[in-house]
Amino acid sequence: MTEKIALGVNPISNKPFTVMIADDSNVERALLKRFLLSEQFEITHESGDGEDLIYYLTTSLTKPDIICVDLNMPKKNGLQVIQEVKKNYPDIKTIVISSLNDKPIIQALTQLKVNAYIMKPYNRNQVLEKFAGLVGKNLNEKSPEAKKINLNDLNVPPMGAVAMKVITFDTSNPTGGSEELEKIISPDKSITADIMKISNSAYYGRAGSVKTLKDAITLLGVKTVKNLIILQSNKKYSQTLNKPIYIEFLQKFPILMALISSDLVTPLNLKKIKEEVFLASLLRTVGMTILGINFSESYFEILEASLKDERLLLEHEMNKYSVNHVQAGVRVFKLWNMPQSLQDSVSKQNFSVSDIPQLTDIDRVSRLAEFLAKRMMGYNLKQDEKKIEQALFIYYKISDEMKQAFTGEYFEMIQDHPFFEMLS
What we know:
Elements: E1 3-4, E2 9-10, E3 15-16, E4 18-22, H1 26-37, E5 42-47, H2 50-59, E6 66-70, H3 78-88, E7 93-98, H4 103-111, E8 116-119, H5 124-134, E9 142-143, H6 161-167, H7 174-185, H8 189-199, H9 213-220, H10 222-238, H11 244-264, H12 274-282, H13 286-294, H14 296-306, H15 313-321, H16 325-335, H17 340-347, H18 361-376, H19 383-395, H20 400-405, H21 408-414, H22 418-421
Parallel strand pairs: 4-5, 4-6, 6-7, 7-8
Antiparallel strand pairs: 1-9, 2-3
Helix pairs in contact: 2-3, 6-10, 7-9, 8-9, 10-11, 10-12, 11-12, 11-18, 12-18, 13-14, 13-16, 14-15, 16-17, 18-19
């Protein structure tokens, strides 16, 4: 038996979508409330007039996801309410429910970019269809297909011994640590070959002049070599997933995020976290790789679907498997006994605007790098992502000039980085 998802529950946060209602008819208000509560929406406030709704909205510490208003109300009508909401709270979705259907009213609502309009009288299905569109769901969607996926049942390949030692390797003394790093790496011929290839690449202009692993480590630097090894390990797990979208999301995307985050720390005066944020960004998609390994065909479809609608990737994953890539990533990092800082970073990567002040710079910068990387690769950000991106710009007081530095021109330049040679 399949299990119907409650329409009013956000599958990512597992919390209900919040709604405020304004209608001067007690009967209509009670009917609408009953329909929404039946699908587990949370009604945070209901009013008999628009003025009361606006007052409650401006004084409330938390804002609703959706506001639903009648057009004909005392004190402030629906149009006046929508005008104020759109001006002061543009991220709140708006629904108008009314018996009015004349052309001037429809034109006014269209100009105000009202998200949905429901004609009275209405039934339960009409209301829920409109709300389903607002929260990016299918009214008849079921989850999961057969049974819930248990995180413990996921096939998780072991972390390579060399990669595990390198992740915990102290790079605070690059000169003194090069010999020790050479001893760790040299038994692994595949990793050694990749490091030699990079050190002799056109990027460093050596063209075959680097002959030994020791010389390669000296040329590249201990920190760069460490990151190359972790990148090679990540590539090993994802290389069996060779569809173009997998290569984009699981190989190119994490490299781009890591390089962007590494470049962001300098203008943000956060150089001290450069190595940690690079690593956190590089391993950000590990959970996606694990889901791809376990469900290669269906996960490919999920990645494609996530590019075509407003729903976040995590919501698609939850609808399909009842687990998402963040949860899978946390599971993997625990199994690999990763440093606690990395476990914390992967678990917090899907934060909201209200979480931003309480997070670490590693969490914030790696998320900002994610958004910048998506834009460079031509992927449209969802509305929720745009909201968080803007909040991060404000938090770090990022100028328009700095934003411009991380655009398509940067993307063209950064693709010459030797880390991308690892993909070939």
